[in-house]
Amino acid sequence: MFSKRIRDVQPSGTVMLANKVKQMKNQGIDVISFTLGEPDFPTPEHIIDAAKQALDDGMTHYVQSTGIPPLREAVAAHVTNKNGIKAASDNILILPTKFALYGTIQALVDPGDEVIHPDPGWVSYGPMIELAGGVPVPVRMRYKDSWVWEPEDIASKVTDRTKAIILNTPSNPTGSIISADTLKAIGDIAEDHDLRIISDEIYENLVYEDTHFSIGSIERIRDRVITISGFSKSYAMTGWRVGWMVADKETVKMVNKLQQHSLTCLPAFVQMGALAALREGDECVRTMKEEFRARRNMVIPMLNEIDGVSCEMPRGAFYAFFRTDLGIPSMELADMLLQKAHVSLTPGSAFGTAGESYMRMSYAASRDELTEGIGRIARFISSLKG
Ligand SMILES: Cc1ncc(COP(=O)(O)O)c(C=O)c1O
User: Fold this and answer.
1) Is 293 exposed, middle or buried (0-12, 13-18, 19+ CB in 10 A)?
2) Which of 30, 192, 210, 233 is buried deepest, with most CB atoms within 10 A?
């Protein structure tokens, strides 16, 4: 009854877990959830006001599938100034970030083509590659003092069928950053083997110690790189479903074909909200980032105090990716924590085999919830250790 393509693909583990938590909460159970990756702040008021105004102004009809011209222009100026990626309006496509990744993979990958992606890495890369008939090729990150993605490990997985490399910096789930030198080395690999690079930079504004470096700013490889980012995590706009893709004009045209035949366009009032976000400047982004930094600095030492838990200080995003020495499969541990301690975490195995001994905790939650939740985790782990 259903296509093989859709039957074979796994449902999103993170979305399923979130649904389970909602179900428990509806039953009156006091569950603390650290699973979903979204800021707990409201969307800043000036963004909401701009969208409301657009509705009052009658912006309720179809608009250009590529995005409204002023938003494309604003994003082009933004990525040129902030990311150092030289872009004009026709290098920009406005679409939900997740759909930008999906659409790019659809546009590049033929059945049997291989796409390299990080392990541990975001849960949707593999399924998206499979939905295009491609073959996901996870390349393990190594844990030294922190998680690193070694260019030689990537190079060793390149074959005649490799089409693209997906990279993600800062990384979900590890919170690690790929250094500019490593990005340059990955760029060299792409050049040597004629590959495209899909750079997922959705957490670019949540970088705590370093300066964010965009691989698309390397002039030599600019046309190989498709940079994808958006408003969700930086401006607390996850529900607005608006982001962008920066690429050469031909790639923009190809992915836009998919947009035309599926979403048509993003709602105009949503795009007007997004435009206000860029026009108003980054102050709200910086305020939220400072709060995330403070929570990170509070949460990581608390986790490390738990006997049998170790967690590196993440340099970006809002996830603590911690290791336990319990020897319990991470999926089982997540289930036990949910059922017995009423705390919801994402099992590391959801992000690939390299994540097996880890749990991901989103610290985009209030300080009270973080304190109470970590207390529950500590008591539960200590009860297991007896
Ligand atoms: C690494 C990564 N890329 C892309 C996305 C998708 O972002 P959006 O929800 O804005 O489509 C997410 C969302 O969690 C993410 O963690």
Assistant:
1) middle
2) 233
Interacting residues of 144 by C-beta distance below 8 A, sequence separation 6+: none
**Nearest atom, ligand 1, residue 99 CA:** 11
The three-state secondary structure class of 28 is: coil
pLDDT digits (tens, 9 = 90+) for 280-339: 988 999 999 999 999 999 999 999 999 999 999 999 999 999 999 999 999 999 999 999
Assess whether the C-beta atom of 12 lies below 6 angstroms from ligand 1: no
Residue ID of nearest Cα to ligand 1 atom 6:
98
Atom of ligand 1 nearest to the CA of 317: 16
As a whole number, the mean pLDDT across the chain is 95
Reported as a single tens digit per residue, the pLDDT across 148-189 is 999 999 999 999 999 999 999 999 999 999 999 999 999 999
Q: Give the containing element (helix H, strand E) for 19.
A: helix 13-26
Pick the CATH number of 4-43+284-385 from 3.90.1150.10, 3.50.50.100, 3.40.50.720, 3.40.50.2000: 3.90.1150.10
Average pLDDT over residues 78-102: 98
Query: What is d(CA 287, CA 241) in angstroms, rounded to the nearest whole number?
Result: 22
Ligand 1 site-directed mutation target among 172, 177, 242, 266, most atoms within 8 Å of CB: 172
Global pTM reads 0.96
* Residue bearing the CA closest to ligand 1, atom 5: 98
Q: Does the C-beta of 196 come closer than 6 Å to ligand 1?
A: no
Cβ 121 under 6 angstroms from ligand 1:
no
pLDDT surpasses 80 at 15 = no
If you take atom 16 of ligand 1, which residue's CA is the nearest one?
172
Taking the centre of ligand 1 as the mean of its atom positions, its distance from the CA of residue 98, in whole angstroms, is 6
Q: Which ligand 1 atom minimizes the distance to the CA of 200? A: 3
Q: Is 97 in the pocket of ligand 1 (CB under 6 A)?
A: yes
d(CA 291, CA 274): 22
Give the Cα separation of 61 and 159 in Å (integer).
Answer: 46
**What ranges do the domains of the chain cover?**
4-43+284-385, 47-280
Which DSSP category does 244 fall into? E
Domain 47-280 - what CATH class? alpha beta
Report how far ligand 1's centroid is from the alpha carbon of 287 (Å).
Answer: 21
